[in-house]
Write a structure and sequence with these properties.
Distance between the termini: 18 Å
CATH topology: de novo design (two linked rop proteins)
Number of strands: 0
Shape: elongated
Number of domains: 1
Strand content: under 5%
Structural class: mainly alpha
Radius of gyration: 15 Å
Length: 136
Amino acid sequence: MTLTARAALTGISLASALAMLYVGAYQIRAIEHMSCPLLKGGCEAVADAPFARPFGIPDGFIAAALYAVIVTVAWLAPWVVPNAAPTRYVIRGFAILAAVANGLGVFDMARFGAYCFYCLLTTLLAPFLVWAAFRI
């Protein structure tokens, strides 16, 4: 059994989306405390930081929506759009956008002086996401 690029893209996107949904749930206080493996209270500090709400929206939900769009386009587009070339560019664009946003998030966390495990996880997965997007 081989791992296809679409399956890798889906797995990475779903893992990242779940991590960001967890962060977003804390940001709207749907959960009271975040568990933060390895980094103790850093997750909560970063999630409550001013830069974590661009446009007044919790960034966890923005990121989760971005990953959901990647998965949706990757799986529905072959049936909706017969020519796959434009679809590939859309997927690649969103994957690059996710990677850049993750990089900017790490930059903000470094300036802030605290790190979020879940944000770092999605950042570490981002190069693999872009790789899988370019393999489709």
